[in-house]
Each structure stands twice: as C-alpha cells, then as structure tokens.
Write a structure and sequence with these properties.
- The chain has three domains: 301 residues, TIM Barrel; 138 residues, 3-Layer(aba) Sandwich (Rossmann fold); 118 residues, FAD/NAD(P)-binding domain, CATH 3.50.50.
- Helix content is 34%, strand content 17%.
- The protein is built from 23 helices and 27 strands.
- The strands form seven sheets. Strands 3-4-5-8-9-10-11-12 form an eight-stranded parallel beta barrel, surrounded by six helices. A five-stranded parallel β-sheet has the order 15-14-13-16-27.
- Helix 10 links the parallel strand 11 and strand 12.
- The N terminus is likely disordered.
Length: 703
Amino acid sequence: MAEERRPPTPMAEERAARLEAAEQVTELPLVRTPWRLGPLELPHRVVMGSMHTGLETRDDGGAALAAFYRERVAGGAALIITGGVAVSDEARGGPDYAVMTDASCRQRFAAATAAVHEAGGVIAAQLFHAGRYAVGDWAVAPSPVPWRAARGLVPRELSAADVERTVADFAASAAAAREAGFDAVELMASEGYLLNQFLSPLTNLREDEWGGDAAARMRFPLAVFDAVRQAVGADFPVTVRVSAADLMPGSTTEDEVDAFALALAERGVAALGMGVGWHESVVPTVQASVPHGAWIAYGERLADAVHAAHPEVPVIASNRVTDLRDAEAILARGKVDAVALARPFLADPELVNRSFRGDYLLVNSCIGCDQACIDRSLVFQPISCLVNPRAGREREFPAGVTNNRRRVAVVGGGPAGLAAADALARRGHDVTVFEERAALGGQFALAARVPGKEDYRLTVRSAQRRLEAAGATLRLGEAPDVDELAGFDGVLLATGVRPREVELPGAELPHVLSYERAIREGVPDGSVAIIGGGGIGVDLAAFLVESHDEKTRALAFQARFGLTGSAEFARSRPTRALHRPRPGALVTLMRRSGKFGQGVGITSRWVNVGALTHAGVRMLAGIAYRRITPDGVEVEHPDGAVELVPGSTVVLCAGQVEHDPLSAELEARGIRHEIVGGARDASRVDAVRATSEGIAAARRLAD
C-alpha cells in the first residue's frame, strides 16, 4: 500500500494558482525598461552573467567564442559579461584561462566582440585573478593561507612589489580589453578570488600597508579600481562584482562589504554586481537544491546600503534566477536595478526573446544540475549544457533549416530522444516520436519527482511544446515494431534503460521494489533499506526524507545555514508526489564499495549526500549483501559481523541495463538507425552523454 499523501496546503494552492496565471503573462514591463551603464544605453534589465566557457583559449581565431556569444545576442541578450579573463599568467585559475594582455587571446576576443556588436549587443570583459584558487604552482595570495581543496599547495605570498605589479597588470588588461573592442570591464572581487582575498581577514594576514584593519584590507582592490579607471578613461564603464556574503565564518562583515561598495561608488563605479559564497564554503549556492532566488535578499541589502548615499549607481542581483517572471518580481520590489542570469543562457540562447513574446512554455529552463557547465569548468573542459548540448558547439551544430528534409522516427521520449527530436525538428525534418509510456520524459520524468529536481519537468514540457510547434508527430503510449519503422528514412533509438535485477536470496519478496516503481508509486510507511548508494540511491533517499514542497525546503535551507530571505522566490505548489517526509533514521542507504553518490557531479554530490547526513539517514559502506528477509536486508560488515538492516520496504538501486529491443532486427533488415544514451551503454547512465549523443546521432542520421 502506498503511503498516505497529504492534500496541498492553502499556501501551496495559492502559489500554484499564481504560477498558473503567470503562464499567461505576455509582458514584463519592469524587465523591459531601458537603463544606462555609464554611457551605454541598454534596452532591458536582464544581464547575461559571467561564465567561464573554456572556449577562450581555443586555437580557432575566436570563432567558437564568437558563435557562442552571437547566438545569445540574437536570442535577446543585450549586455554580456564574459567569463574571467586573467590579468597575467599567475592570475589564471587553470590552464584554459585566457590572459587579456596576450596578443593571440586579444585577437580571439576581438573576433568575439565584433560578433556581439554585429548582432546588436554590448559586452564587458571580466578581469580576473584567481589568487590562492589557482590550481597550479603559480598560485599567489595576500598571505600563504591554503584552501581545503588545494591538496597541500600553499600559495606564495605576494611581496609589496608584487602587489604593485598586480595593480599594473589589471590596468594593462583593462586597456587591452578596450583595444579588443569590449564596451566595459568588470573587476572580479567576489567568490573568494584575489581581490576578495585581500578584503577578508581569513586570507589577508599581512602587516604591511596592504593588510590590517578593514580599511587597510580595502587598499588593494581600491587601488586596482583606480588604476583601471585611469587606464580606460572616464567614458568607459568599469563595474565591480562584489561579494555580498562570503558565507565563511569570520570573514568580511556586512558593514565591511557596505564600506567597500560605498568606496567604489565614491570613485565612480558604473555598476555593482553581486556574487555570493566562496568555493570552500560549506553553504551551497548554485546547485539545484538551492531555492530559487535564494540570494536576492543579499543583493537587495547591498543595494539599500549603496542607494542610500548613491542612488545613481545600479546594483545587479544574481544567482539561482532562471525565469524572467521571477526577475520581474525582483525588480518590482524596487531595490535592485537589473538581474543577471548566467546558466539559463546556456540552456536557452533565446531565453529573452521567448520570454518577451510570452512563450514561457517554450523556454528551455536551466535545471541547476551543473553537470556540463560548472563541473566541466572545474576540470578545465569546455562547457556545454545537459538540456542544450549545442551550447558551446554552435559551429559544430549550426542552426538553420536543411534543404535535405527527411522523415525520421525517434523511439523513446527520454532526455536523449527529446534532444535528438528537437535537433531534427529545428533542422526542418519530419519527425515522429514514439514513447511507450503515456507521457514523455523517461528518466527525467522520474527525476522530476525527486525533491530539488522539480525543474526537470520543465525540460520535458518545453521540449514537447517546441516539438508540437515545429509540427512533429508525438505518438504516446506506443512502442513501434520494425515493420512500422521501415517506412522512415532513418530511425533513432533512444529506448533508455531498465533497472538492474539483483541475484540475491529474497529479491523476489513482495516488499522488494525497483527504484522506478518506488519513485512512480511511492513507498509505504515504515523503515526502508536501499540497496545501492550511487546517484540513484541518493535520489531515492532524498525522495523519502525530504519535503516535496520547495517552499518548505527553502525555509529549512534558510534555517539550516542561518540565512535570511532565502525562501522568498521558492515555488510552493502541489505535486502528485507530495509525501509526508519520513525521519531519516528510518532509511538506510547501503553500498558495497565506492563513494555514496558516485556518478553525481562534482558540485552537487557533496550537497546531496550532506543533506541526507543532516536528515539522519544511515549510510553503510564496505558491506556484503547476504540475503533479503521479510524484515530487511542481512549484510556482513568488513569485520565479519552480520547485521539485519531493518526494511519493511527494500528498494533496489543497483544500477541499470540497456533496453534495446529493436536494433538487432533493424540491422538485419538494413534499416538505417542510430542508438544513443542508455540504450547504447548503461554502464553509467549519464544524461549529459545521452543528450550529446542524441544531437550528434541526429545530425549523422538525417543531414
């Protein structure tokens, strides 16, 4: 018997009604209000925020970077801020960071700025120094204080002469940026990078003129600002990204943040953007589990402090805003002047234009997974996007309708199939999607039931709407046979995976569920033993112990980390899986070897596993499974001790196997086909790989 579902609360019903009404909104009057950034006139108040792409150092004359930015300006972006551009070799965060004063880098940026201008946009270069966050032996810092992920690397303390030289590096880079065609520069003084390191008493332990009390710690970043302003002239906007909150105990206080911001305003800063959190903070800031708009209150507090003395200085809020209707609501509060979104422009280059037309259902929303963007940037790979695998590959997969129209069948409506079908439909092909279930989504439909992953449903919904708008045929509840597929010019198989069965005594007992059944149908009240502690096991545990209402989770997030205002923009809405969360003590997550959450992305794993630990979920590793009994799972510990782990329900999260019922016969019949995603290889179900394979196979199959 499935556990009792509670009816939605009146608050949830009210919020759901507002969201439903918002679907019909066609105007964003505040977002669409023009504003000025120094001498620059901007037509709306959405900023494409800074993202390191890994394209900046590609040896292609800047073509890939130009195509990436051009497509986003064509989609409505007016002001783009680049990813961090190093001001010297030692300023690089890693091997794929461009150095602004390097002649070849400047040529690549000149191509990118020209593309932005041709498309009608403006672009600012973010001038960057990683400081102690650099990953190589070139790392420098105000003081020799390593960070916890530095693997023993202690940064070299900058001498007084080094500090003066670094100020000059920023000035030279600003002049080079203007020469390369940029319209403005932003100084990165947030997220724990060098300027932020000088501001913080945690990392600035100096006893010379560049350290000491809060006023002394400000000298270096203010000297950088002054030098940059002098280098570029008064007619060239200089903005600063300020850390609204370091989220590091003992670091810069609110009063010190305000004093720094006001000092910049006195010096004529063109705008102040907000950042939040250091890489080593234990507070998550960008993951899917972070409530929507969680950090807006921090930008508003900064804006209040600045506008009290300098109302003419725009303040730009950011972080975990994915929908321009939320940007409209933020601006309606009357505190900040613009809103920056970064990853949402990866997910949908047409975000602004679609929203301005009222086509919200077509917007391909960022789901906050980080898997193809931030996670890749941390290992120095070019970024892309799980839900938009063309991102960063615009030249490889150019837009536009083909003259070679084909009739193509896509079998499977999960992430890989939807990505392929969307790519085919965009190219003008005649697409038919077969999905054996009554609704599209596949593994994303399951993921959308997991707390913190509700936005996955938006990916499915927008893909379906785009396919319908393109005239694709959707045949739901149908599994085609080979005879039917023989009538198409090509077949793309994206039939996905099935849960792996386990060879364990007792696996046939009635209280043993697959993860798919557990998530689709719910789990009865009582104790739960989960066999398998990888990504799916962690998701299943979250499904059981966390609230299925984002507003409730947002309030808990706010309380857990001692934050303020982090629940303001969380969406409270009823769902079909609105469970009463069970105590974590009733859930045991087990695995034989490896890390819990293995396979989850770099930036999300620690957050997801940490949430389970906080909830009290028991985690057993290094055990051997002996048998399943009516009362739970009998396991053997490394020391030989045997334990019966209680489980009135046992859920199998032991991996997946390929589901490919068609390719052998298609091959035998000589029918052209491609296999993608989990159907091709289920050894590690990876949605980034699946969607990327989907668009690549679609291009091979039809073009």
